[in-house]
Amino acid sequence: MTEPLWQLSAVELQRRFRERSLTPLAAAQACLARLDAVNPKVNAVIARRDSAFLAEAQAATRRHAQGKPLSGIDGVPLTVKDSLFTADQPTTWGTPALRDFTADHDETAVGRARAAGALLLGKTNVPEFALEGYTANPLFGVTRNPWNPVLTPGGSSGGAVAAVACGMAPLAIGQDGGGSIRRPASHAGVVGLKPSLSAVPREHVLPSLLLDFEVIGPLTRSVADARLLFAVMRGPSPLDRSSLAAAHAAATPRVAGPLRILYVERFGSAPLDREIAASVGAAVEHLSALGHRVEAGALPLDLGFYAEAWPQIGQIGLARLFQQHPAWEAQASQKYRDMAEQGRRLSAPRLWQILEHVKQLRRDTVPLFRHIDAIVLPSAAALPWTAEAAFPTHIDGQEVGPRGHAVYTGWVNAAGLPALALPCAPSREGLPIGMQVVGPYGSDDQLLDLGAAYEAAHPWAHRWPDLEHT
């Protein structure tokens, strides 16, 4: 039986384009047909550009016929998260005030992907202002998990992971400000790279609500595909000076031989779903079997400050946003107006204190990685929960608050470190589970190497959700 074209990876599409057994136009048409078939069940893609998409596929087909592809992703379908500017489609951020807003420019990462020949299928759904760990908003409604549409794919890149998981496009550009690539990747069974701070420059962007924590990264079904997309998005830009430091750090030689890995199963008394603990623990044993030196232990960083400070960062960010754009606040959902009001009550010294703690955390991670090469943790503390709910209220029988499911991810953003989310063995009911591998600043390629080796020994891309019978 012939494999459906929508199931082909970006790497495989490129191979077939080169050997002339498949054209980008045929691949694009297959992805559109898949979108028509499954998007009504999951609501991942909320804006389409079918005519332009097919015209660009025809142009890519001509380039490949001439033996002149623009890059390793030329002719490969791609989706973009609806919190990133696209010059020919609205960027709504999931909020009514921006329903018809279209930017003058692509965000840098999007522009680079398009210049490399990627075919933009459409935009993917986000929670309002991309601030939460599930995906729903007043404009486009709820996004659902392809593995069980009753449940959420997480957020805020929930639309992106759902599109990749069920084959609408092999590539997606996501955004991660506190785990918004890694946790949805774990809930949908896909790969997600949260790059080092500024490895992908940020230009032509919406206002940041989370300081400089928000980074752009790839979401794919394989590590090789993530590497392909990351390769065309990364690289310094003079308009983002911190990207110059990121490029310098990326030139650090990779570790030769086995890695020294610290496995952190849990954070203190914070609850962790037992199936996640078992799945990630088994994956860590697989890493050890690959020859890496793995030790289990606590994370040697003091993160207690962020339990209170993390929600305050978003509150301050919203307060500032609405100060600049009062009309946006007038149309925002009540919960975000309430958050902004809380932010207005916080003092400038409190923000300064937060900034000082962030700087100290970034300093503290430098000596940490003199003794280890990578840290493995769960990507999320909870399995996917009801799609309409912002967060699970209980984990392993314990009551939790809004970020109980998200305890493992935010510190990585604050520290500016790279992290690669990888699928592990699924739960008893077949729900995806993921782990994240965190490395020192600039070690993105080292993490991709590790992920590729793990994937080769324990592949997952053959798993597909059964949307036909849901």
Overview of this protein structure:
By secondary structure, the chain is α/β, with parallel strands linked by helices. It has one domain: Amidase signature (AS) domain (Amidase signature (AS) enzymes, Alpha-Beta Complex), CATH 3.90.1300.10. The chain is built from 15 helices and 15 strands. The protein has helices at 10-19, 24-42, 50-65, 108-115, 158-165, 182-188, 223-233, 242-250, 274-289, 305-324, 326-331, 334-344, 348-368, 410-415, 444-457, and strands at residues 45-48, 77-81, 119-124, 136-137, 141-142, 171-176, 191-194, 215-220, 260-263, 293-296, 374-378, 394-395, 398-399, 419-423, 434-438. The chain has an 11-stranded mixed sheet with strand order 1-3-2-6-8-7-14-15-11-9-10, sandwiched between helices. The protein has a two-stranded antiparallel ribbon with strand order 4-5. Helix 4 links the parallel strand 2 (77-81) and strand 3 (119-124). Helix 10 packs across helix 12. The longest helix is centred in the C-terminal third of the chain and has 21 residues, at 348-368. It is globular, with a radius of gyration of 21 Å. The two termini are 23 Å apart. 54% of the residues are buried. The mean pLDDT is 97.
